[in-house]
Give the backbone structure.
Amino acid sequence: MRRTRNAKIIATLGPASTEPHAIESLFMAGADVFRLNFSHGTHTDHRRRIEIIRDLERHARRPIGVLADLQGPKLRVGLFHGGKATLGSGDVFRLDLDQAAGDRTRAALPHPEVFAALTVGTELLLDDGRIRLRVEHHGADFAETRVLVGGELSNHKGLNVPNVVLPLSAMTPKDRSDLAAALDMGADWIALSFVQRPEDVAEARAMVRGRAWILSKLEKPSAIVRLDEIIELSDAVMVARGDLGVEVPPETVPILQKRIIAAGREAGKPVVVATQMLDSMVHSPTPTRAEASDVATAIYDGADAVMLSAETATGEYPMDAVTMMDRIIQTVEGDTHYTMMRDAARPAPDPTVRDAISAAARQVAHTLQVAAVVTYTSSGSTTLRAARERPEVPIIGLTSDIRVARRLALVWGTHSAITKEVHSFSEMVAKALKNARDEGFAKPGDQIVITAGVPFGTAGTTNILRVAKLEGS
C-alpha cells in the first residue's frame, strides 16, 4: 500500500478514534503516524491502541509510526472561592504559595520555581493569554502584580511566563513514568513538551537511550532563541503553534513557522506543523477556507508532516478531517508553484560523502526521469539525507529494522519498507528492483536510483550510488 503524496499526516487518537475500525478508517483515509496524547488516558488505553495499530500494520503490510506525546510541566493557579474571580484592569493581584482559596485580590500558584525566575516587569499570562499581569514586586514565595488585561479567572487555569527560562526540567515525574511506559509499548517517536533549551533534549535522549526518536515541540520563545542547537540534538521538531501562540504575538507565529521549517530543512530533520489546522472540523464536516489555506501554507513552506489533534481525537468527523487534509496536500503538491518553491528552498549539500551521494541521486533521478530513489539504511540516516534533497520521485526507504521503518513513516516523500539484510552489492540491487516493482513504483523498462552505505549495516556511511533498470515484460 502506498501514498501518492510526499508530506505526511499525523492523526491523534482519542475517544472518537479508539476502536479498531475507527483507527483503520483513519489509516485508510491517509494517516501515516498516530499520536497518543499522554496528557489524557491511561497507560492501559494507550497500550491497547498500540496493539490495534500493530495488528493493522501487519494486515496492511506497511510500517505505521506511533508518536507518544508527553505532557510536560503544567503551570496552573489554584482554587477560587465560588470557583472563579474577576480581575479588573489596573488592579493589584497577588500570586503566592498559600493553598487557601483565592479571590479577586490573590490566588495560589504552587510553583516556587516560577517565583525564583521572576524579575520586576516580567509579564505573566493566564488562561491562554486572556489575562495579562505585570510583576511589580516579588520574593521567593510570592509575586505582587498589576493587572494589564483583566477578565474572569477560574480554578486551575494555566500560567505562561514568556521570555523567561524557568528552572524546570521538561520531564516531570509523570513524564518519566509515561516515557518508560511508552518505550515499553514500542512507541517510535517521543514528543517532548516544554523544551526551553538544548539541555532538555539531552536529558530526554539520555533516558530514551536510542529506543525511539525524539521530536522536540517548540512552544517556548526561549527555545526559538536556541533553535539550531535544539534541532541538532533532536530527531525532528514540531511547530507547536498553540502554546507558542500564547507566548509570542500572534502575528509572529507564521514567521516563526517558516523559520523553523527552513532550519529543519537545512539540518535534514523533519518538521511537523501542528495545532488547530482544521479545527472547525471538530464539529463540521468541512473546514473553513482559512483552515484549508493554513494547511496548504505549511505544505508550501516545506513541512514534512501536518498534524490533527482534536479533529481526530474527539471530533465528530475524524475520517473526514484526514481525508480533507490528504486532499489539500495532494492538490498543493500538484501545483507548479509548489515545485518552484520546493526547489528554490533546497539547501546546499554539506561537504560530506553522504550529502554528495544524496545530491547526486536527486540530480540523476531528474536527468534520467527514473521511477524512484531507493535508499538502503540501517539507522535511517541515508533516507533522511535523501529526503532533505526533496527529489521529484518517491523515496523507498528499505531497512531490515522494523523500528527504523516505523520512524521513517514521518519523513517527507518516504515509503518505508522492510527487507532482509543484504550481504552483497548484487543482492542489494536485486532487492531494490523487486521492491520498487512489488510496491507499484516501477514497471518493466523503468530505471531506479539506489543509494546505500558500504559496509552494509554501518550507520551513516552513504557512499554508493547505482542506477538500475527493471527488466522483463
